[in-house]
């Protein structure tokens, strides 16, 4: 793998993580208020949703960039 390919995969993973974090934060906030999560647990719930969504989106966008890099 050349440096251009590694740069492309890292950029894809970064963009995916940023997109996933923003969507996860919005969805986590919505769910926390919808299901009436009590007190300080709201912040924990929103944080978990944000990080897990960022990890999944980043993984898939990075993997997709890796597959396209081989062409």
Notable characteristics:
71 residues; mainly alpha; 2 helices; 86% helix
Please, could you describe this protein's structure?
It is a single chain. This protein is mainly α and 71 residues long. The protein has two helices and no strands. The longest helix is centred in the first third of the chain and has 32 residues. The radius of gyration is 15 Å and the shape is rod-shaped. The N and C termini lie close together (12 Å). It comes from Elliptochloris bilobata. Keywords: Membrane, Transmembrane, Transmembrane helix. It holds the Pfam family Romo1.
- N-to-C SSE string, H for helix and E for strand: HH
Largest sheet: none
Q: Strand tally, please? A: 0
Strand content: under 5%
Helical proportion? over 70%
- Poorly predicted runs are none
The radius of gyration computed from the alpha-carbon positions, rounded to a whole number of angstroms, is: 15 Å
Helix/strand layout:
Layout lengths: L2 H32 L6 H29 L2
Helix pairs in contact: 1-2
Report a brief summary of the structure.
By secondary structure, this protein is an all-alpha fold. The chain has helices at 3-34, 41-69. The protein is rod-shaped and about 50 Å long.
